[in-house]
Amino acid sequence: MFQLSNRQAQEIVDKMMLDIPYNINIMNHQGVIIGSGNKYRVGTVHEGAVRALETGRMVEVFEDGRFEKKGTNEPIVIGDERIGVIGISGEPEEVRPFCNIVRTTVLLLIEQRTNLENLAHEESRRSAFIRMLLEHRGTYTQKIKREAAAYHLDLNLKTSVLYIVGLELTEETQALLLRFPSFRLEDGAYLTLLQDDSPPRKWLELLLRGQSRALAAVGRAEEGIADSFMQARAALGVLMALRPDASIVEFDEVPFLAGLAAADIPPRLHAAARLDEHPELLATLRTFVDCEGSMSASAAALNIHRNTLQYRLKRIAELTGRDPRRLLELFQLVYDLLADYR
């Protein structure tokens, strides 16, 4: 049974008495006053409320008594349950309309709270379900398949995972996410699961339009959702580490680099950490890698003179101990960047 808390009841009383010139009492399912304009009455039993709860009908008191004052007492009913009573002190003919207003306010509050609790419960179920899918290995059971069907997923089909971070939720992005089964992770990332021939890049370009901070990666279509997710997450690490101007990457574009990021090759220099205090050097290194080591292309992409580029590459070598102008040392720097974003 739903129960109004003392705090909720008192907040309703305080707000309603700003506009209603009568004392308001809210009683719980036992007839005990839990909110009142007269704070001294909180915690006492209201006899009129007890009778209203017993009968399920409004009880009006026309004379002040020792334990009750004249006024109206109307039960709050949800379904077949009497969860409390609204009482307003005063001449019954005068306060009766106000009693209905307060009762309606309480019912709306309860409906709002119930809806929020239902949404929270559903979100919790969705989070638990997607976590289970991302950790699952092997064949899906019939029980998992039935649960997936509730989210419009057919686990007999191959699935491609789209991993999206930095997305600002707007009406437009919400509408786009509803086109396919989509889940929000605890870290704020979104996963969209594709099981048809829809081109993911075209859809992602629509989703990320005007989203300067959003990035997305696409895993291959796999029998296991967890496998495609791991691919998408690894590809996103490559995107964040090495592709400063891109916002979308597909795993098939970077399978070697994604695999390299997952490798554990000691010792590491943590190059990205060493360059964190020098953002222009970090951007230079990423652009130099993206331009495949071309001095002219890198200088043009960065809109700097070749001499400035030479100076920056020399500073990177001084700070990291790896010269990006040497192929093998550049490869080591690439690994360090990838490992820092895996």
What would the CATH topology of the largest domain be? Alpha-Beta Plaits
Radius of gyration: 32 Å
Query: What is the number of domains?
Result: 3
Q: Helix- and strand-based class?
A: alpha+beta
H/E element order: HEEHEEEHHEHEEHEHEHHHHHH
State the low-pLDDT regions, or none: none
* Tally of contiguous helical segments: 13
What's the pLDDT, averaged over the residues? Answer: 87
Give the % helix.
Answer: 40-55%
CATH architecture of the largest domain: 2-Layer Sandwich
**Order of the strands making up the biggest sheet:** 2-1-5-4-3
Main sheet attributes: strand count, strand direction, barrel closure: 5 strands, antiparallel
Could you explain the architecture of this structure?
This protein is an alpha+beta fold and 342 residues long. It has three domains: 6-118, Beta-Lactamase (2-Layer Sandwich); 136-262, 2-Layer Sandwich (Alpha-Beta Plaits), CATH 3.30.70; 264-342, PucR C-terminal helix-turn-helix domain (Arc Repressor Mutant, subunit A), CATH 1.10.10. The chain is built from 13 helices and ten strands. It has helices at 6-16, 47-55, 92-135, 142-149, 171-177, 200-207, 225-242, 255-262, 271-274, 279-290, 295-302, 306-320, 327-340, and strands at 24-27, 33-36, 59-61, 71-78, 81-89, 160-165, 182-184, 190-194, 215-218, 248-250. Strands 2-1-5-4-3 form a five-stranded antiparallel beta sheet. Strand 9, helix 7 (225-242) and strand 10 (248-250) form a beta-alpha-beta unit. The longest helix is centred in the first third of the chain and has 44 residues, at 92-135. The protein is elongated, with a radius of gyration of 32 Å. The protein starts with 5 loop residues before the first helix and ends with a helix. The mean pLDDT is 87.
